[in-house]
Amino acid sequence: MDNMTTIQTENALKQSDLARMKLIATSLLGLAACLYILGKILEGHHPNWGYLTAFAEASMIGALADWFAVVALFRHPLGAPIPHTAVIPRNKKRIANSMADFVVDQFLSKEAIEQRLRRYDAARHLSEWLMETEHRKRVAGYLNHAVSYGVKVLDDRRIHDFLATEARNSLQSIDLSVFMANALELVTLNNSHHHILHGGLNRFADYLNNPENADKISAFIKSWSDNAFVQSMIDPFIPTIRASVINKVRSIAEDKSNQLYQEFDAQVNDYVARLKQDPELREWVTRQKNGLLDRPEFGQQIESLWSKFRDWVVSDLSQPDSIIASRISSLVIELEQHLATNEELRAWLNEQIQSALIKTTDANKGIVGELIREEITRWDDKYMVNQLELYLGKDLQFIRINGTLVGGLFGLLIHALTVLLAA
After folding, report:
1. Angle at 38 between CA 37 and CA 44, to 5 degrees
2. How would DSSP label each residue in 196-251?
3. CA 29 to mean position of chain CA atoms
4. Nearest-angstrom CA–CA distance, 375 and 395
5. Which of residues 273, 294, 315 is at a domain's end?
6. Which residues contact 263 (CB under 8 A, 6 or more apart)?
């Protein structure tokens, strides 16, 4: 059953209850009229029938007075434009303002929300709710669906273009020269950059020592001279030269006090200073960066990375042993355990919930008040009367019933006192 059908059913039940209560109140008025007629007819036969007449007469007066009062709230009784009747439709704007101010001041005030949240202790309730295994599974399931749905929804050309544009804008705003300088300074901490030179020298030694490169190295050494005789004289010594160079390179690689390391330090420090201070180098770095970002391949690479990430997430969540699902379940369990044992965390969570609700409510309570004013003001008078009568009319009919009965009792009391005083 949808929401509209439910509302219609509830309204039909309220309308039926209202009609039933109106019938009871009107029937009591009719009964009082019948008793009055009966009392008047029999009054001449015995003075005690005067009590019935007094009761019935007062009952009719009470019933009619309260009927007038109830009807006057919603419309003109019997259609006559009597002053100070049809109170609700005549004061619709004032009622709208008063209701809006009442709701905003009494229900949406900072003090009311703070008191309610202190009594409620949202963090404790959340902790107790998460203690149930079924509840934890439900939360984890919601989060899994949210992640899967999120990456699928974001699989859109507009999103791809947005990501590429934002990545490009973010990178363009970065001073790459300063970034590179800071990165190099970070690398030079504790001489970590020496590993680069050490690895490079050993790689070079490995290259020289590789038998597959022997012919290339021999040809290179022979090329030092164009004289064929000199080349023939050098040829027997090439293996020795090669081994000597390999040993020397490896020796330099292991000796961190070697002048080569000092020169390497000087070159790195000089380059860091230039990246920070040399306008030409900084401009060149910026041009290279912008040129790379302007290439179509940049956007394609961003899209490719996003697509691979999206496919991995969707594929993983579809597996029984999903890494993401397992991690989400673990996080939910950890959350429940921390909330159950960590009082400071619960206090922090309550403070965040309280702060967020107060800020949100304070920022939007004016909108809520204006919504109430606009909604009530735009109501048609007839519609407004019908709705209020539907919700309040049943209880208001008790006023008519009570007026009939209480009026009759007071009439009976007054008649009895009158008889007593006359005696």
Report:
1. 100
2. HHHHHHHHHHHHHH-GGGHHHHHHHHHTT---HHHHHHHGGGHHHHHHHHHHHHHH
3. 57
4. 25
5. 294
6. none
Residues 277/168, Cβ–Cβ less than 8 Å: no
The residue segments making up the domain with residue 202 are: 157-294
Rg (CA), the chain: 46
Nearest C-alpha neighbor of 51 from the set 59, 39, 33: 39
DSSP state of 191: G
pLDDT tens digits, one per residue of 385-420: 777 788 777 788 888 888 889 998 998 899 889 888
| Residue 83 resides in a domain | yes
With a cut of 90, say whether residue 192 has pLDDT above it. Answer: no
Q: Which of 294, 315, 349 is the last residue of a domain?
A: 294
Contact 85, 75 (CB under 8 A): yes
Q: Judge whether 316 lies within some domain.
A: no
Query: Is residue 145 assigned to a domain?
Result: no
Q: Can you list the positions of beta strands (E) in 236-340? A: none
**286 and 176 Cβ atoms separated by less than 8 Å:** yes
Whether 128 is in a domain gets the answer: no
234-252 per-residue burial string, b: 16 or more CB within 10 A, e: under 16: beeebeeebeebbeebbeb
Inform me whether the pLDDT recorded for 86 exceeds 80.
Answer: no
How many structural domains comprise the chain? Answer: 2
Greatest CA separation for the chain = 166
Q: Where does 214-341 show beta strands of DSSP type E?
A: none
Residues 63 and 189 in one domain: no
Q: Which two tokens stand for residue 341?
A: 């044992």
Answer yes or no: do 82 and 170 share one domain.
no
Residues 279, 201, single domain; the answer is: yes
Tell me: do 86 and 163 sit in the same domain: no
Average pLDDT of span 308-329: 85
Same domain, 410 and 286: no
| pLDDT per residue as tens digits for the range 120-160 | 778 888 888 888 889 888 888 888 888 888 877 777 777 77
Specify whether the CB–CB gap between 290 and 168 falls below 8 A.
no
- 169 with 75, same domain: the answer is no
Contacts (Cβ under 8 Å, ≥6 apart) of 312: none
What pLDDT digit, counting tens, does each position of 49-67 carry? Answer: 889 899 999 999 998 998 8
365-382: pLDDT as tens digits:
888 888 888 888 887 777
